[in-house]
């Protein structure tokens, strides 16, 4: 019997139990919002309720503790506590409490990926709720709304987005949900709407969720802010979205919450910016954290993004390995949408590995139709594209057109980058049908959309990376134009996709300001000259956020750093020159612009009378000649023995002969001064060693023309810089100083980063003899080692450093990195983009002492008024190539630009 006699304080034992139950429910309601503040009180209440045999309060207190553990992703412990609480049911007999516990366990099981168990718990909770006849109407309604949220979330995570949206809207319109449930529903609805391409409405719901969550506690507030940032980025408002992401990371840490879901959202943002190494790192962090926590539902989503990112970066082997694990886990979780995504990644990876995927078409079509039916727009477009590409490999390629048309139609309503993929699908379908005019229109429209996206980005690096979204579109248009045989149109198309990011006119920090000598991301001072270490994804995110905010346009113009000079109004690109203007600037030189299409190189040759197309070698043949050359030059820079040096020299000469035969001999231009515009891996070719006349390189014909017609600067100052720890650097600059009257010399001890930036910024001629530290993964963070620290390309570019002519006597300083979309980044491209008219740099390691003779010859020619290309050619003729070091220096230095 229940004891009702009054206790010493006048209350009955039942009243105390009821009071404990009320207290327990209050703690359980707060636990999901502010777990740190609740945990200690919840432990105390559980002990007190157990001692008082208050079984209902005991069970609800355990639910509160389970909510604390779930917030920390300790799902196994949360499930254990809820199981223990449910076993108290026969003692207290309160069916409302049972319903609450079952609803809580359903959420935990859902997070663990135990979908069947979650559905079973939701159904059991609804039965218990129906049997809780003594419960107040308000309590029944609130719990009913929460269970409807659970069902909607099950639809959502299964990819049934239309069904999920309908459920979410019913909950919001009912007015029965608590504030906590309302926030979750509005937040989830925003995610669904964004996935379906309805970003404006998504942002409105997300903003409502943030407003309500701000008064509920740190957890709902940080979760809704994260969604708001994600939707904002995908809507195209990069400045606000990236800044908010950076703030959200701090909020997660302050709340003591795991960052797994945040890492996934960061990976998405980084992928859209084509910062693939950082995106992969963030997705891997997310997958690892979810695996440790046993949250297999979210693990599938993180692992899917990771597989897609590895595929985008070209690692099909790793992508296929990840897809295999995804297929197994998605089947276990009965999540059709994620199983469909896994099939798409698996098929694309196997296709990239050269396997026959024609048999995948039917399964991919079913996957695409299911994704589209459920409203997952982006995933449906990818699946239709995969189906179309698989069909293209079959016996009847025309059957691919239906899938490609479906991808194009689905993408029309999507965000900008999805529309770019849709344009690619439409261009491919038109090509299959033989409609070249339509294929070209679609490719041109897609590149125009991409240019709009690129123009919103704040740095040359991000713009170059974003061009990768249009790499296949560029090749699609080039394929069509090559069939026309019109070299002028081919050249114009190449220029449309070539080094577009380098033409961006971006804000420049004024001389003497902090921005002029320090970049947004730089080494810590104590790092000294040890070289830049990889920048963590979170730090890159912060730097990107700061950069976007700084350069974001407003109603009154761009927001610049304090004291910065305002950028010109046109921040898109320099228009390509007309043929007559280009020929006038060439002044007898011959332009050779190279392109790649369908596994072969082609050259457009512009001389003083005509423009012609010349087919060249297969890309694979060039690669097989170039790779051993790179290896041989590396060995020659530091040969271990005379025999090793001789073997490397023989290999290098053989490779040079092969490259000459593949790339230059078909042009018939021996003895002619050239301007060469490489593409892709051809930026690694030592072009000067292949040609018997002066040769200048450029990232595009437009970029070279800009260096040729730029007004003459008044400055004729010469600055000579010697970095530390180079035996020949001091001697080099002292010898060069004798050739230039009034040259300013900064020796190894005086070559501090700030002084170097200010000295060379507007110099007529700057010579930097320093250690070079290349970053192939992120060339804008390659650096020059100076007296106090390493100075990155990013810092030089941000400070507007642009001497008229620049000699980089540093290892690998000329080894700019080629990116998808015909972009190139590195020391040379950054200097040319800022206005430097001529650069000499090496694509390989520079033997220290032996380079002095080449540099003396180069500067002697410059002092005579020769261009960089002609002075370098003459200097190379005076180099003693009998030694390994001399041969390397003769081979690897190249001239860039027209000055």
UniProtKB/TrEMBL annotation:
Disordered, as annotated region: 507-536
Pfam family, one: CHAT
Residue ranges of every copy of the CHAT domain listed in the record: 656-879
Coiled-coil intervals, chain numbering: none
Signal peptide bounds: none
Descriptive protein name: Tetratricopeptide (TPR) repeat protein
């Amino acid at each position: 019997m229940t004891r009702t006699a009054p206790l010493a304080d006048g209350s009955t034992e039942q009243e105390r139990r009821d009071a404990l139950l009320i207290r327990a429910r209050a703690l359980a309601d707060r636990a999901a919002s502010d777990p740190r503040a609740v945990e200690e009180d919840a432990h105390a209440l559980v002990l007190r309720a157990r001692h008082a045999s208050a079984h209902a309060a005991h069970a609800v207190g355990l639910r509160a503790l389970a909510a604390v553990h779930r917030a920390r992703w300790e799902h196994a412990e949360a499930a254990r506590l809820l199981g223990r609480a449910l076993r108290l049911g026969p003692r207290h007999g309160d069916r409302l409490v049972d319903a609450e516990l079952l609803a809580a366990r359903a959420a935990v099981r859902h997070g663990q990926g135990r979908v069947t168990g979650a559905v079973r718990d939701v159904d059991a909770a609804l039965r218990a709720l129906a049997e809780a006849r003594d419960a107040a109407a308000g309590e029944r309604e609130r719990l009913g709304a929460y269970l409807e949220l659970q069902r909607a979330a099950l639809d959502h995570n299964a990819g049934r987005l239309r069904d999920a949206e309908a459920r979410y809207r019913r909950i919001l319109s009912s007015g029965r949900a608590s504030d906590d449930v309302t926030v979750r529903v509005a937040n989830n609805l925003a995610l669904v709407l964004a996935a379906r391409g309805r970003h404006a409405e998504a942002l409105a719901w997300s903003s409502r969720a943030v407003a309500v969550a701000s008064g509920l506690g740190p957890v709902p507030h940080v979760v809704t802010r994260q969604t708001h940032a994600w939707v904002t980025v995908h809507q195209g408002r990069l400045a606000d979205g990236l800044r908010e992401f950076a703030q959200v990371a701090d909020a997660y840490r302050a709340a003591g919450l795991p960052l797994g879901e945040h890492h996934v959202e960061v990976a998405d943002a980084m992928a859209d910016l084509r910062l693939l190494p950082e995106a992969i790192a963030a997705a891997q962090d997310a997958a690892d954290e979810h695996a440790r926590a046993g949250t297999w539902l979210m693990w599938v989503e993180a692992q899917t993004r990771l597989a897609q990112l590895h595929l985008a970066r070209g690692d099909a082997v790793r992508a296929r390995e990840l897809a295999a694990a995804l297929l197994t886990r998605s089947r276990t979780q009965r999540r059709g949408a994620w199983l469909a995504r896994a099939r798409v990644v698996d098929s694309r990876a196997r296709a990239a590995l050269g396997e026959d995927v024609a048999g995948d078409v039917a399964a991919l079509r079913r996957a695409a139709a299911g994704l589209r039916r459920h409203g997952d727009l982006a995933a449906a477009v990818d699946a239709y594209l995969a189906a179309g590409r698989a069909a293209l490999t079959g016996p009847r390629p025309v059957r691919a057109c239906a899938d490609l048309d479906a991808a194009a139609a689905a993408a029309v309503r999507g965000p900008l980058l999805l529309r770019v993929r849709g344009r690619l699908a439409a261009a491919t379908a038109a090509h299959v049908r033989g409609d070249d005019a339509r294929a070209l229109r679609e490719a041109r429209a897609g590149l125009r959309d991409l240019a709009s996206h690129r123009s919103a980005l704040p740095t040359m690096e991000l713009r170059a990376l974003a061009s990768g979204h249009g790499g296949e579109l560029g090749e699609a248009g080039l394929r069509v134009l090559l069939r026309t045989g019109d070299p002028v149109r081919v050249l114009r198309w190449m220029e449309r996709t070539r080094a577009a990011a380098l033409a961006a006119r971006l804000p420049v920090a004024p001389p003497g300001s902090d921005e002029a000598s320090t970049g947004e991301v730089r080494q810590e001072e104590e790092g000294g000259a040890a070289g830049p270490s990889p920048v963590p994804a979170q730090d890159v995110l912060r730097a990107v956020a700061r950069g976007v905010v700084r350069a974001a346009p407003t109603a009154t113009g761009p927001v610049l750093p304090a004291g910065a000079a305002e950028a010109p109004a046109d921040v898109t690109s320099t228009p390509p020159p007309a043929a007559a203007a280009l020929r006038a600037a060439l002044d007898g030189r011959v332009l050779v612009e190279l392109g790649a299409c369908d596994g072969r190189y082609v050259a457009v040759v512009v001389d003083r009378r005509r423009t012609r197309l010349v087919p060249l070698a297969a890309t694979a043949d060039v690669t097989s000649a170039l790779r051993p050359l790179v290896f041989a030059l590396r060995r020659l820079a530091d040969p271990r023995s005379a025999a090793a040096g001789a073997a490397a020299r023989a290999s290098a000469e053989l490779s040079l002969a092969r490259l000459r035969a593949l790339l230059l001999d078909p042009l018939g231009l021996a003895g002619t001064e050239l301007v060469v515009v490489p593409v892709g891996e051809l930026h690694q070719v030592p072009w000067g060693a292949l040609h018997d006349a002066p040769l200048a390189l450029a990232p595009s014909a437009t970029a070279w023309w800009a260096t040729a017609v730029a007004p003459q600067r008044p400055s004729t100052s010469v600055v000579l810089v010697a970095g530390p720890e180079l035996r020949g650097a001091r001697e080099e600059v002292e010898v060069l100083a004798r050739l230039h009257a009034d040259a300013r010399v900064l020796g190894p001890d005086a070559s501090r980063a700030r002084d170097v930036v200010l000295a060379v910024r507007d110099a007529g001629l700057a010579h930097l003899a320093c250690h070079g530290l290349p970053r192939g993964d992120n060339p804008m963070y390659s650096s020059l080692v100076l007296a106090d620290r390493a100075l990155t390309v990013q810092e030089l570019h941000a400070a507007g450093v642009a001497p008229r002519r620049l000699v980089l006597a540093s290892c690998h300083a000329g080894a700019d990195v080629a990116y998808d979309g015909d972009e190139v980044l590195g020391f040379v491209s950054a200097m040319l983009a800022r206005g430097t008219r001529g650069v000499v740099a090496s694509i390989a390691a520079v033997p220290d002492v032996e380079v002095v003779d080449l540099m003396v010859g180069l500067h002697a020619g410059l002092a005579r008024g020769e261009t960089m290309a002609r002075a370098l050619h003459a200097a190379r003729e005076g180099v003693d190539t009998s030694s390994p070091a001399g041969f390397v220096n003769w081979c690897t230095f190249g001239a860039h630009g027209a000055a």
